[in-house]
Amino acid sequence: MRGLRTAFGEHVVHEDLDLDVCRGEILAVVGGSGSGKSVLLNTILGLKEPDGGAIEVFGRDLADEKARDELERRAGVLFQNGALYSTLTVIENVEAPFLEHVRLPPDFVRDLARLKIGLVGLEASAGDKRPADLSGGMRKRAGMARAIALDPDLLFLDEPTAGLDPVGAASFDTLVRDLRDAMGLTVFMITHDLDTIYAICDRVAVLADRHVAAIGPVAEMERSDHPWIREFFGGPRGRAAREKQS
Ligand SMILES: Nc1ncnc2c1ncn2[C@@H]1O[C@H](COP(=O)(O)OP(=O)(O)OP(=O)(O)O)[C@@H](O)[C@H]1O
Predict the structure, then answer these.
(1) CB burial of residue 58 (10 Å; 0-12, 13-18, 19+)
(2) pLDDT higher at 245 or 113
(3) Which of 149, 157, 176, 232 can bridge 189 by disulfide, Cβ–Cβ 3.0-4.6 Å?
């Protein structure tokens, strides 16, 4: 992203925002409430038009329709609530991207969907259940199976551990890292979760003052003198997360 500007009428959310995401990394995007994390994600995904600047993905400018099509094909998204179709079973949810984007025989699609359900650590029997019949953690995994259905290069995660208990959150972190390693994913993750940041993120981008106020490994954030960054990483939760990892 270069010089990105987004606004709602007079209200400017991002101004002169530059951000690079490196291939293969897990990048955490953090920032206070209202700092524009969701608007940034929605802008990258094409759900909101930028008001200025440029976003390039896979070497193409997203202003180009072909680039948007390519992003849709090569990126998976896990929204905060999982965004699963409630009337479909889990396996039907995982099959949905195949039906939308590729033409393959139904039996083959089913086999691929089963494979993805296994990859995210769900029992095969979960495939026949509807989202409402799963626990929160299982629903996130089902959403993840759908997000990786088409073997994406880029994975967007919106608060993946929100609403999970600490054990469930830690095992979801491990899943994200294992999938990144196994599938060579690049992960763009909005999160507030300091445990996740310390456990699996390669770099952190801090949204503040309408732009990326700092970006780098978590150790660099600990040395920052930006007030919000100091409070976030230097507070009791930050210290506890750091101690857990050491
Ligand atoms: N559809 C909209 N219309 C008008 N303003 C909006 C709209 N969506 C977001 N905003 C504003 O844009 C700013 C950034 O919102 P955003 O949801 O991206 O913040 P966030 O960093 O994701 O916050 P949180 O951590 O609380 O989810 C906020 O001031 C919000 O009020």
Answers:
(1) middle
(2) 113
(3) 157
Residue 199 binned pLDDT confidence (cut-offs 50, 70, 90):
very high
ipTM: 0.97
DSSP 188-230: EEE---HHHHHHH-SEEEEEETTEEEEEE-HHHHHT---HHHH
Residue 244 lies in domain: 1-58+156-163+171-179+186-246
Q: CATH number for the domain including 237?
A: 3.40.50.300
Give a yes or no: residue 24 inside a domain: yes
- The sheet with strand 154-158 has its strands ordered as 75-78, 154-158, 186-190, 26-31, 203-208, 211-216
Position 187 confidence tier, pLDDT thresholds 50, 70, 90 = very high
Ligand 1 pocket at CB < 6 A: 8, 11, 13, 31, 33-39
Instruction: Name the residue at shortest CA distance from atom 1 of ligand 1.
Output: 8
Atom index in ligand 1 nearest the CA of residue 34 equals 19
The CA distance from 112 to 240, in Å, is 40
